[in-house]
Design goal:
The protein is α+β, with helices and mostly antiparallel strands and 329 residues long. It is built from seven helices and 14 strands. Strand 13 and strand 14 form a beta hairpin. This is Thioesterase family protein.
Length: 329
């Protein structure tokens, strides 16, 4: 008699995962639920948290002044500071208006997790801030003003042909990642077509400092502004590109984003494919950066993002010789 399989958990759509609602009686406090399947092994994925914060900023403007819902719905430029991991479960988001403007308004959002008292005493629930966002809200569809031609940030000749030069990343063509992949359900939320051989060190002249990837959503859903914000964090940690066969991840090395800044240039109508180029400039003394450019199929710039991150050595802390071996240094 075969052993019955455990029931599969219900998957959470992106729209459900970033849904927020006002706390009863408040226009500045919102509740949300960090979805289990938008988390990695150690907590919620940073791009998802960024999108959740941006959704809270839009909702805040909508409930405090209904006219904002139509005039300033878009998080055109945002800075996110990530303090603590967010585990699945309820969170609250507190909002305040830093600047009100006819063209751009600035909203501050704090994402907080509840801290419940331990022991038999019935103490009061307190909240601890896990992430902070400063969001510049505007309306991309109404933008007008000075426009000048500039050199393309991603030259067309550097963008690989998706059909002939790329292949879909799957566990079948990267079996070393299976154990790590299964611990992070968020890995299924976008589908990646990478340059052939990119993760095997065959990097066609760009070197391990650059990752080039075409990306779509499951079911070929169209990208909206919130999924573009989330996409700005959808790239392997840069140091892993220097470690053959993911030896660093298997050894317990971790890479934590301290902060990220996003700039949304446009929301391409009907876009189902976006191309991402991620480039690291310096990895030094346990700290590194990451610059991301996202373009559409017309090779027009959609978004920019800058990350600041740190290396967490985990079980290898204090063992520099062993760490160097992971990267063949």
């Amino acid at each position: 008699m075969s052993t019955p399989k455990p029931p599969q958990r219900r998957q959470t759509s992106f729209e459900e995962a970033i849904a927020v609602k006002p706390l009863d009686g408040s226009t500045a406090i919102f509740t949300a639920n960090v979805a289990w399947d938008w988390c990695g092994e150690y907590g919620a994925w940073g791009g998802y948290i960024a999108a959740l914060i941006c959704q809270a900023a839009r909702t805040y403007l909508a409930v405090t002044n209904p006219s904002y819902k139509n005039s300033q719905p878009d998080p055109i430029n945002s800075h996110f500071q990530l303090f603590l991991p967010n585990k699945p479960g309820p969170v609250r988001l507190t909002a305040s208006l830093l600047k009100s403007g006819a063209r751009i308004s600035v909203v501050k959002i704090e994402l907080q997790k509840p801290i419940r008292p331990k022991g038999p005493s019935q103490g009061r629930i307190t909240y601890k801030t896990c992430a902070l966002g400063i969001i510049n809200m505007s309306n991309i569809s109404l933008e007008a003003g000075l426009t000048l031609m500039t050199a393309p940030s991603v030259p067309k000749e550097e963008i690989p042909d998706r059909e002939t030069e790329c292949e879909q990343w799957t566990l079948k063509n990267d079996p070393v990642m299976e154990e790590l992949y299964l611990k992070s359900p968020v890995n299924d939320k976008f589908l990646s077509w990478e340059v052939k051989g990119q993760r095997d060190g065959v990097l066609d002249g760009f070197g391990p400092s650059v990752m080039r990837t075409w990306i779509c959503r499951p079911g070929m859903q169209e990208f909206d502004i919130f999924s573009i914000v989330a996409l700005c964090d959808w790239t392997p940690a840069a140091p892993s590109n220097f470690s053959p066969k993911h030896a660093d991840l298997k050894a317990g090395m971790l890479y934590a984003t301290m902060s990220m800044t996003t700039e949304i240039k446009k929301v391409p109508k009907g876009a189902k494919w976006l191309y991402m180029r991620a480039r690291v400039n310096v990895i030094k003394n346990g700290r590194f950066d990451l610059e991301i450019h996202i373009v559409d199929e017309n090779r027009e710039l959609v978004a920019l993002c800058k990350h600041a991150a740190v290396v967490l050595e985990g079980p290898l802390a204090g063992r520099p010789d062993d760490i160097r071996k992971l990267y063949k240094l």
